Amino acid sequence: MARPLHPDDIVSRKDNKAALAVVERTHDGIDTHQPYPGKTEIEPITHDRAISQASFRRFMKDGVPPKETILVRWQNELSMELLPISQVELLDRSLLIGDIVKRSVSDAVSGVVINTFTKCTLQPMCDVLHSSGHTLKGLLPPGKWEPGNENLFTLPPAGKPAPIVDIPAVELRYAESPTEDDMVIYKDWIGRVEGITNNIFVKLSDNGVVEIPDESGQHADGTLGAFSVGDIVKTTKGTLRTGSWVYGRYSPNTPPVGTVVSVRTVTADVAWLQKRYGSNDEQEPPPQLEIPELESSDFQVYDRTRRPGGSSVDPTGRLSTVSNSETDVRLNLRVRFNDLAGARVKYSTASNPNTIPRLERQDHLGYDLNVFDVSSFHTDVTVQWQDLSITVEDSINLVPDGDIDDEHAVWPGEIAHTLGLSPVPGMPQVEQPERVGVVHAVNAADRIATIQWQPGSTIYYTKDPDEEEGVPVPMVSHAMSYQLGQKEDISLYDIEAPAALNVRRGDIVLILEYPSDPSTGRPRDVNWLGEIVDTPMDGRLLVRLGAASVVQDVLVKRESTVVALRSDGTGQLDGWDEDMDDDFDTDSDDDDDEWDSDEDSEEDEEMLATYEDENGDPMDEDEVENDEWESADGDLDSDAENDVMHDAPERQETPPLSNSETPLRTGEDGSVPSAEAPSEEAPTAYKILEGRIPDDHRFKFEPTTTTSVHMKRTQKEHKILRNSSSLPAGVYVRSWEARMDLLRFLLIGPTETPYANAPFVIDVYLPPSFPAEPPQVHFHSWPAHSTIGTVGRVNPNLYEDGKICLSLLGTWEGNKGEGWNASRSTLLQVVMSLLGLVLVREPYFNEAGYENLVGTEASKRPSALYSERIFLRAKGFLITALSSSKTAPGLAGLEDIIKWLYHDSKGPKLLAATIKNVEETLEKSQGDGELDGLTVMMNMKAGNAIHWFGVLLLFISSLLLLLVTISSPIINNLGLLHVELGNSSKTQDYIVTFGTFGHCTSNALPNGHDLCTGRHIGYEPAALMSRVDNFGIDSLSGGTSDALTRVMVLHPIVCGITFIAFLVSIGAGVVGSLAGAFTAFTAWVLTIIVMATDFTLFGVVRHHVNEDSSRSKAYFGSAIWMLVAAFLLLGLAMCILLFTCCVSRRQKKKDAEAMKEARATIPKRKKRCGLF
Q: Where is this region: Disordered (predicted)?
């Protein structure tokens, strides 16, 4: 199987090893998929014969290489080519310090590149023959320059000098400085060079030297662009005449060609990033620096390759954890030796003492022409893996980690904290996590991190009271105590490593505390700026002061640094510039005709929505708009509403709910069958509520509209939604009589997805511009549940601030025909799009551009991990809806639905279905099944995430037991036994309800109120019924029944013990699981006693009432079934807690042994002393 390729890889043709190329685009490299590549690339783009013309035309439009193909830029000719991967061979993979890598795309373990060791092949300067007969010294660009070609320049018959091989990149430096993307320092400011303008000094064949602007010259192959020392340049005689002559003077007989012998930067465009902490210089430097600034002592280019004294290149030190940058090489890069004389001695041999040729300055008017081109290179890297082991790897044996955006991925040395936030006393609207620590190692396969907590460390977050629920709160300050506490293994889903706090090797930071001159208050040196070169395990940072006059590494407290420039490019305007869309307007008919194939046109036509009546005959838009889209019997044509699933490449089915008897599927005509008719107890799918609009409706205060057009369309939308055949199962719509333009949708997550059985609430507003403009929607993204773990979005299209990214809503720029259409689009289509396109089985591919990754090997594991996180995040939604129904925003008006769906014995029992689903997932996860994030998860789930489901079951059990305890006479109609009296003249009205501490008789008082006994331990139900119902009961049965009521004092005791079990088990880990399981077992045993007592006591009464000659009827009440449910949930919770206890202990022992072996491979490092 061919190695997977990535952008910037160096490859060669398999049938021609000398033909080198750089990979520019791959099918999986979505960041490179800019459309219309022919308009953005200078070189012409061709394609291999193995690629069809239709595939090539599609690529030239969308910019996405077909699967198993790549776009390369050849180095020996000015062209780019789309060709199959099978035709090339990988030579080198460019990796930088700080990159996250894996050994293969399917590996769980990733690591950080901490050092690179690149060896280069260099091409020395050579003789170049000009057509005029003159000979120049220089380096020609890639191309065919052999004698006999009809070129202005050719190589001599002897060709190029022999290349120099195996030169470490650390011995080289750039030939020119500054260059674009360099980081520069000017006075108290740092910035990044975005563009430069140079003058070049050209040595002509007559030994004259003239300074000219570089834009007035051309390279030997006729192209324009920046020049470096050693380039051959051709210009015009007019340019020479007006140039600034350094040596000689203009001669019309001298050909206008020569060698660039020096480069002088005239202007540099700089984007200023930060200023020195404590600087009084409020005025930002000019965006364009000129020669006076560039050549002043205040200007400096930051050189990452500088190292502290004594830090030499030592191959035996490859396992050091301190990073040392080297020159970042690329093909055809122009370089110099740091020490040419030393290199000549080092690489000379007896047979070839002149391995590295040298051009003497005196032969070239004092200019240094000892420059070389990098013609090829090969890289080894050292990687620190998540388990702290360090290895040396060939770069081509590693792949970039495609899942670095995982919110729950951490690496050793990072700061992490527990999820739950609590208020800080005396600081309003400020919260802090319970514990803060440093990650020491990660078991990536089981998603477990080893953290050493640091007692006394603080991270403060501020919460805006007006901010939307679910939006991440910003960090305001942090301080590490550096006191080493206990180490603990903890799930990655139970911690967060804040990106604002953590850094990566290669990041440039400002130092807040540095030595300064007391007399001036200014630093004596550039000691306020440095690069992260190590992240020690105590939480501090090792910073290299690379701009100081004497380079040194210093240990700095993390809170004493501020990141100025991140090595991974985050926080920058990186990638495709959206402003370029204006330059490449795709609306042009000419452009479309040029690149569109017939295939594409057919696809566009299929995207248009169409409507049919019940006979399958097409309908025009006027008929649809004039209410003629109803069938003859009044039912709406389901095919009309569901015709187009926006944003989808093809029609998708709406997955079934767990309570559906048969999977929901589309019919032959593409329509979606309606849900079964709800039972009498089930809430209706559509309902108009009376009363005021709830305060938690996102659009409550938006203006209403009373225009006839708006009202007519609003009524039509409601008409569609209230039709029983329209809404799929699991969708509930609520609106308000006072505001029909406000709606609330409850969507139950489809089965076979990570969202199964979880509730999702969406508020809808039909603005005054509706239907010309799409409806406004808001997704209620409840905050992450601290007891179940996971943070972040629940779907790439569902934002934490409530935004829903969907082309149908106008919040995403989709393809033609996918946007909102006033005459065709409906709210029902919005619902169907959410169910069929957002709440899907593999939400990872909902991310923009990721649809091209479906089915690729590289996307399998990232997709599975994403689904795993969403699985837990969705369960957090479920817990929020059940435990915070009064406080969680978005649930007002939906309370009866939530109760029926999850709690009601006559409902679909989604809570029980969810528990069963989790149990099945855990069971499958213990085997060897392939990880998919849905049915098979990380082994650690069984030992941690399920712990919180056990905790949830204990909480539900305690609530059920509490309800049983406060049954009649506290809650009149909630009882263990109900008796409908048959000997009364008011048989229909008299019902005796027996509870834990007494009983009530309904309508017994003259005013129609209930007559209830006082609350006390023990009463006489058998004697009571013998009196009021006139049935006979033997003294033994009656006495036993009445005596057993005293045992019901155990009800509140069992309830209390169960609640204690819940509180104890909140402490996750071995201790919490063991203590919770023991307490739950005690409650479970007592529940058996209570349950046996209640069934015996009231079973006797029930039997005698139903067997006597009276017309009375006795039956068990809902309270006794609550007791049975609590008994079952208690038993299940107890088993779960015991199971997680065993798993945690086994995992901890296993990880401890693995960590011991891993640490044994790490070399000990000498202690360092910092400046501060």
A: 277-296, 569-682
Backbone angles phi, psi at 1090, to 5 degrees: -60, -45
How many whole angstroms separate alpha carbon 519 and alpha carbon 1017? 85
pLDDT band at residue 935 under the 50/70/90 scheme: low
Q: Cα–Cα distance between 112 and 133 in angstroms, integer?
A: 55
Output the average pLDDT for the chain: 81
Residue type, 965: T
Backbone phi, psi, residue 151, to 5°: -115, 160
8-state DSSP, 834: I
- Residue 44's Cβ-count burial label (10 Å; 0-12, 13-18, 19+) is exposed
DSSP per-residue codes, 513-563: S----TTTSS-SSS-SEEEEEE--TTS-EEEE-TTSSS--EEEE-GGGEEE
- How does strand 80-84 pair with strand 45-47? parallel
Backbone angles phi, psi at 382, to 5 degrees: -100, 135
524 with 1171: CB under 8 angstroms? no
C-alpha 1007/C-alpha 355 separation (Å) is: 115
pLDDT of residue 927 exceeding 60, the answer is no
Percentage of the residues of the chain whose pLDDT score is greater than 70:
80
Residue 1012 has φ and ψ, to the nearest 5°, of: -120, 150
Tally Cβ neighbours within 10 Å of residue 684.
Answer: 13
The predicted model scores a pTM of 0.68
Tokens (6 digits) for 286: 């000019």
Residue indicated by tokens 């996860």: 925
498 phi and psi angles, rounded to 5 deg: -60, 130
Q: Is residue 334 a contact partner of residue 373, using CB atoms and an 8 Å limit?
A: yes
CB of 1110 within 8 A of CB of 1030? yes
1169 carries an active-site annotation: no
1120-1147 per-position pLDDT tens digit? 999 999 999 988 888 888 777 666 555 4
What's the CA gap between 967 and 973, in Å, rounded?
8
**Domains of the chain: residue spans and CATH:** 9-94 (no CATH), 118-309+321-381 (no CATH), 412-501 (2.30.30), 504-571 (2.30.30), 686-937 (3.10.110.10), 943-1157 (1.20.140.150)
What is the DSSP-derived secondary structure letter of residue 272?
E
**Contact status, residue 575 vs residue 528, Cβ threshold 8 Å:** no
Q: Cα dist. 1024→466, 586, 751, 969 in Å? A: 58, 86, 51, 15
Looking at the DSSP bridge assignments, the partners of residue 979 are 992, 1114
Confidence label for 585 from pLDDT (cuts 50, 70 and 90): very low
- Residues facing 267 on adjacent strands: 197, 290
Tens of pLDDT, residues 977-994: 888 877 654 445 578 888
Task: Please tell me the distance from the alpha carbon of residue 1005 to that of residue 259, in angstroms, as a whole number.
Answer: 114
Distance CA 732, CA 735 (A): 10
Distance CA 901, CA 881 (A): 11
Q: How confident is the model at residue 313 (pLDDT cuts 50, 70, 90)?
A: very low
In whole angstroms, what is the distance from residue 672 CA to residue 640 CA?
Answer: 11
pLDDT at residue number 587:
42
Q: Is the pLDDT of residue 1056 over 80?
A: yes
Q: How far apart are the first and last CA of the chain?
A: 54
What CA–CA distance (Å, rounded) separates 972 from 954?
Answer: 26
Rounded (5°) CA angle 655-658-664: 35
Cis peptide before 178 (omega within 30 of 0): yes
**What's the pLDDT score for residue 569?**
65
8 Å CB contact between 844 and 862 = yes
Answer whether the bond into residue 969 is a cis peptide, omega within 30°.
Answer: yes
Radius of gyration (C-alpha) of the chain in whole angstroms: 38
Q: Exactly one of 126, 805, 1135, 1141 is catalytic; which is it?
A: 805
Number of C-beta neighbours around residue 332 at 10 A: 16
At 835 the three-state DSSP class reads helix
